[in-house]
Design brief:
Length: about 325
Amino acid sequence: MKTKKERKSVPQKKRKKRRIGLRIAFFVFLVLVGYQLYTDALHGRFGPQVRLTVSSVVNVIENTLGILGEPQIDTSFFPEDSFLVYDMKTEEIIAENNTEGSYAPASITKLITGAVALEILEEWEAVTVTESDLSFVKKGASVARLTPGNYTVEELMEAMLIPSGNDAAYAIAIGAGRKLGADTDDTNVAMENFKLYMHEWLSNHEFDVQITDVSGHAQEDFFHYDDAIKLTTLALKHPLIDKIVQKTSGKIKTDNGKIDLRTTNLFMNPEQGWFNRRVTGVKTGSIDHVYNIILRYDHGDRDYLLIILGAPTETKRDELTNWLLQSMDVS
């Protein structure tokens, strides 16, 4: 015969099992509801932001269950837009949409200019910037506000890549061109020296591009998504470029005072609403209704490139970029 204590313990055990069973059932219910909402979203019943929220919940559940191994990007959310996500470790494209076209690279070109210049110049070398060098800057272009004087290559690289200074792009290209041409004083000749070297570099790396302006200020220039991947990968192999593209600010001392540098990448700036702590570079670019961005995204043991080329407006580019980042964040 069971004792009084033993008789009391039986319902307690049943209640415990019942609570565990209810929790499992509730969790399964959430999973099923989440997937149902997700299916409805894919059939267009909700707007992109609501669909992203539903997708985020589902991804969190899947992560909890250990289902996902890499970020999940649903390209149907923005069927008309152009973007690509590239795994730098496996060298595989994990998501892409409308990536067949060619696009003006705009200031993405500065990654080419930097990578080529660093094959000619050492980062500690001094480069003399003249009024003639700065005259290459076109009206309305982004500038770092350089003045004539002496700068190190590293300073010019920071001025070119952090605030996307076209003046710095011309200065470093001409400085490298002068070195190639036995320190020629002719600014135009020095620029042509650099462009010839740059075109040979592009050819050797089998790029399918057209680059006529080292700052990217040329609507007729073009490149493609595979060029963007290859270019960024090559550029980031240089320690100086890798270091600079992660900076959000900098200062350059000149004879006329200090020059403050601020990044054009809103996704790296903690003071901006678009800030994402996992973004570690790389470059933005825009020219006449063509808005580009390449971001490196830290996802645990993997780095990814998020690339958007040819967005029609800056707002559209940033909204699409933010959606991609949120999708990566919850994956």
